[in-house]
Structures are given as structure tokens and as C-alpha cells.
């Protein structure tokens, strides 16, 4: 394309005017996928309200802090840090708090299901709801573990497939 311009070619869009369509075609298939993914994520980000963006950013910061707390501290310390960071989030519904946790904390570097569940639990509790952090294991196909949050008897953050994980008994619960 550059050589054609240098040679003085006057074919269509090669006359020195940058052509977006030709640049898009010149991108390799892998980069084209990345470009389209970024474009869709940008459009989704612009479609949410300012309050929702703040909730997601707050959940992301909480997720980063949770990853660091779990990496260099204990599980109990991470829960305390999340409770302190959540503060008082009045007015959030269960679905709004769960969405913010999954959209924000789920994208924090190094975040796994436990991080998302801890952030979701803290946001729900700060909003005046009664969440329950659940941890389950699956032994079929090798050992796997998963964390999720339930509110009102239904999984709202990190929802597992029905029957996929056997829920562990919470610490301090009476066994029959």
C-alpha cells in the first residue's frame, strides 16, 4: 500500500486517504477478534449508568484488595478487609450487588471464585441483605472446589450447576 502511494498510484482508496476498511482487513484474524471484543466491551461499558460504573470499579478495587489479602494474609483477614471496604452500600438490590461483584471483582487480576464470592458477600451484607458464603467440592473427575454466595436460599454470585458441588458444612454448624 505504501509502495503504491510512492509510485503515484491513484487507484480508489489508495490515494493517500486512510481507509478504515482496508486497515481492518489487514489486521490478522487474531487481532481482529481482539478488536471486536474490545469494541463490544467498550459499548457495554458506555451503556451502563454512572452509578453502575462506580459500583463495578469499587468491586474491582475490592477484588484486587481481596486477592492481596488472601495472598499475604488469612481468609478471616480478607473477610474483614472486604467488610471494611464495602462500608454502607444502602439501596442496592440483591441483583445489583451480585452483578457488581461478578462484573468488577471477577475481572480483578488473579481473582478466582473465592474472591468474587467474598466481594459479593461483603456488598450484599453492606446493602442490608443476609448473604451466606458457600464452599463446595466435587470429587468426580478429580478434586475441584467452588465458592458462591446465596441470598434467600438462592445462589446469586458464582452460581454452580445443580448437584455439581457438594456443599461443605459451615464452620460452627451442628452436625446431625
Brief characterization of the structure:
The chain is of the alpha+beta class and 176 residues long.
Task: Please characterize this protein's 3D structure.
The protein has about 180 residues and is of the alpha+beta class. It folds into two domains: about 1-45, no CATH class; about 50-165, no CATH class. The protein has helices at about 1-5, 20-25, 30-45, 50-70, 75-85, 95-105, 115-125, and strands at about 130-140, 145-150, 155, 165. Strands 3-2-1-4 form a four-stranded antiparallel β-sheet. It is globular, with a radius of gyration of 23 Å. The relative contact order is 0.10. Residues about 1-10 and about 15-20 have low confidence and may be disordered.
Structural class: alpha+beta
Main β-sheet, in a few words?
4 strands, antiparallel
Q: Overall pLDDT, averaged? A: 77
Neighbour order of strands in the largest sheet: 3-2-1-4
